[in-house]
Amino acid sequence: MKFRLERDVLADAVAWTARTLPSRPTVPVLAGLRLDASDGTVTFSSFDYEVSGRVSVEGEVADPGTALISGKLLADIARSLPAKPVEFSADSSKVVITCGSARFTLVTLPVEEYPELPQLPSASGTVDGTTFAEAVGQVAVAAGRDDMLPTLTGIRIEIDGETVTLGATDRYRLAVREITWNPVRPDLTGVALVPARTLVDAAKTLASAGDVTLALGGESDDSLIGLAGGGRHTTSRLIDGEWVPNYRRLFPTEIATVARIEIDSLVDSVKRVALVAERNTPVRLAFGDGQLVLEAGSGEDAQASEALPAQVDGPGIATGFNPSYLLDGLQALGTPFVHMSFTDTPMKPVVIQGIDSLEGEPSSGYRYLAMPIRLSS
Amino acid sequence: MNGASDAAGMADMVGTAGMTSTTSASNANRGNGTSVWDAVVGQPIVPALQQTVADASASLDGAPSGSMTHAWLFTGPPGSGRSVAAKAFAAALQCDSGGCGTCAECTDVRNGTHPDVAALVTEGLSIKISQVRELVPKAALRPARGRWQIVIVEDADRLGEDAADALLLSVEEPPDRTVWMLCAPTAEDIAPTIRSRCRVVQLRTPPSDAVATYLSTTEGIDKRTATFAARAAQGHIGRARALATDENARSRREEVLKLPFALDDLRQCLDAAASLVDAAKADAERHCDALDAREVDELKRALGAESTGRKPRNMDAAVKELEREQKLRRTRVQRDSIDRALIDVLALYRDVLMLQLGVRTELINDEMRASLDRLARNSRAESTLRRMEAIGQAREALMANAAPLLTLESMALTLREG
Ligand SMILES: [Zn+2]
Q1: CATH H superfamily, domain A125-247
Q2: Which residues are within 8 A (CB) of B311 and not within 5 positions of it... i.e. 6 or more apart?
Q3: 3-state SS, one letter per residue, for B13-70
Q4: Which residues form the DNA polymerase III beta sliding clamp N-terminal domain (chain A) (predicted)?
Q5: Contacts of residue B137, Cβ cutoff 8 Å, sequence gap at least 6
Q6: Chain B, 10-69: which have a CB under 8 Å from a chain A CB?
Q7: Mean pLDDT for the stretch of residues A232-256
Q8: Which of A:57-116 have CB within 8 Å of B?
Q9: pLDDT for residue B5
Q10: What is the average pLDDT score of chain B?
Q11: B interface mutation test: which of A148, A157, A171 has the most B CBs within 10 A?
């Protein structure tokens, strides 16, 4: 095997495929990165039985072939190279990398012991990479982090024709984002539950690729999800089992009070007030009379209170929230103002949506629901 | 690999460290039979499991699930092959033809590289809650190859209360395609909350002739050696394999069986205890040294140690972690080695007791009949029973991590007094 690549192309390709490699592999060969050179294309692949990554780049291939070498070490080397063409040449026991005056020799691992990468399931459609990454990031804030409740650590992807709905919840909050996309068929439907950590990482690293293909497969190949864009392919195992059934009903339909507030000052206030809130105690919010009053803490020594201008439509309402849940939602909106809607009881959840002006109506397709904490009177 | 009480054959015992499965060529190629069930020796329950595999397969095509269920508990005495049976069942469920033993599914399950079969093996005295935390998310995955997502817990009797609680939710309500397989000596070793969710597969100690036949047909061992090994191992397959194939194991056993004849004074008792401990250490060295070195070597190589021009980062930490697991494994190998010796001594006294009681039965140590007769004439059945009890107590103490030398010294003194 012998080929030559531009340094930046190499560094990008290797950094991306090596990012999922374990520092302590369960089987030694899984620490490897597989190189395949043929016909003007060099492909780098990694696989750990749960996530696979593959990227193909153009290169001058003098001698086609395959080799498996330590992935983390290669990534380290690729980062350190000068901006010059990089030449790989391999025999049966080692790969020699030369770049300018730098020269490295890597021992090859037994490629015949390396597991075969899963095929990308059949494509479901394409979505703008930046939009998708933003949407995934917005819902991921609500995903559970407790591995003992695996279904809640996933992001649910639901396809219904031209709409993709992403959702995540840890039972205390629920984030949902709808985006439009280009399905391969207008009547396409499908559902997949993807480990949130994996999906966030994949979406983020494919964001700059322009169009990203989502591949949920059909009846015969729906056991994995695939994402592809810009020459990069990744597959991930799916989480099985029941997610929150009929989650849409959790969004209240009867809205009594709506508050519109500037996000940056609200975030700052919540952070300041939360400083005196003990762990797991709420920040109290009282809406009414053109303002929002935030309070936290109990007893004389540790109390905090602040007031912010707010446009409040409907009867005044006072309720309490876990401050970090509130902040997660506010910071995921990506708009200058927030639209908070309440029912007529402080026991029902608040729904947080982004708006562009104090007069605006929500339109971004992102909704963040947070359960209130009961206030002791 | 069934606890300190389970004197498994070394070849079985030293295959893995922690969750890490390191496949050696000798391990990888063991299944040269025509079916994964060939390795499940002398178990009348196999046809029922095969029926379940057929039901399970039909249920994938939409038929009712029949005898298939989501949680199984494999029980049986040490050496009956609980984890072997669980793995055969796992392979048969993943295989398109019910466990052919040769396809990719069967091979991957046997080698521990099947993406849809996770196994928790413990070298420690108890399963840590962190190990359960790693396992539960795997049980929630949809099978990558489309059939079943299988999670095997060997030594499930080593689940502490917390670890069992952590496991419970997942065993109670697994996804449709998830199958739990727990292994333990008896159903009573498992918390009732979990036990009640499981269908029990009760294995028995395989009869000696079944073990002998297995050794000669599957492993190509001559009939005489196979018969001797099967009898001496008292139905423990791994032990029988070791006795049949390993000269060291045979001579070690002969040494151990001299022990009851050399307990005349205090000095001899202390020497006997010390020699058991030393032999166990030697055993562990013989079986772990090369394996440990190879595992470290393979890991270093995989992380790029032999490369030139740049030093791999974080390699030392990974190697340290591996070495920690290897140390645990070595401790377990030593403990199991002592236990195996005690089982052999116990069997000798059992033979003596049979002679004293005049029971006509096959002696486990038939080739020593003359010396056994002498021992039987020179003591009474009550003393033999007390000696057997002392051995049993020593085994229990060692299993609970008592200091080996002290425990064995005290046992040897009781054996002397009778
Ligand atoms: Zn098969």
Answers
A1: DNA Polymerase III, subunit A, domain 2 (3.10.150.10)
A2: none
A3: HCCEECCEECCCHHHHCCCCCCCHHHHCCCCCCHHHHHHHHHHHHHHHCCCCCCCCCC
A4: 1-118
A5: A147, A150, A153, A195
A6: 19-23
A7: 92
A8: 69-70, 72-74, 76-77, 80, 97, 102-107, 109, 115
A9: 39
A10: 89
A11: A148
**CB A240 within 8 Å of CB B141:** yes
The C-alpha of A221 sits at a distance from chain B's nearest C-alpha, in angstroms, of 8
CB proximity B169 to A under 8 Å: yes
Ligand 1 centroid, distance to A42 Cα (angstroms): 35
User: Domains in chain B, start-ordered, CATH in brackets?
Assistant: 5-202 (3.40.50.300), 266-417 (no CATH)
pLDDT digits (tens, 9 = 90+) for A309-321: 999 999 999 999 9
Q: Do A237 and B144 touch (CB under 8 A)?
A: yes
Query: Which amino acid makes up residue A377?
Result: S
The band of A376, judged by pLDDT with boundaries at 50, 70 and 90, is low
Task: Note whether B136 contacts A147, CB cutoff 8 Å.
Answer: yes
B positions 176-195 inside 8 Å of A (CB):
176-178
Q: For testing the chain B interface, which of A79, A147, A171, A238 should be mutated: the one with the most B CBs within 10 Å?
A: A147
* Total-model pTM: 0.88
CA B81 to centroid of ligand 1, rounded, Å: 20
Confidence grade of residue A265 (pLDDT, cut at 50, 70, 90): very high
Cβ neighbours for A178, distance < 8 A, ≥ 6 positions apart: A163, A164, A165, A166, A365, A366
Residues in A touching B141 (Cβ below 8 Å) = 50, 237-240
Q: State the Cα–Cα distance between residues B349 and B333, nearest whole angstrom.
A: 25
Cβ-based contacts of B305 with chain A (< 8 Å): 107
Comparing CB atoms, the residue among B133, B144, B312 nearest residue A147 is B133
Instruction: Say yes or no for a CB contact (<8 Å) between B21 and A26.
Output: yes
Domain A2-113 in CATH: superfamily? DNA Polymerase III, subunit A, domain 2 (3.10.150.10)
Give, in words, the CATH class of A251-370.
Answer: alpha beta
What is the interface pTM, i.e. ipTM, of the complex? 0.88
Res. B335: pLDDT tops 80:
yes
d(CA B228, CA A344): 83
Of A103, A147, A151, the CB nearest to B309: A103
Give contacts of A34 with chain B, Cβ < 8 Å. Answer: none
Query: Do the bridges between strand A60-63 and strand A2-5 make them parallel or antiparallel, or are there none, so unpaired?
Result: antiparallel
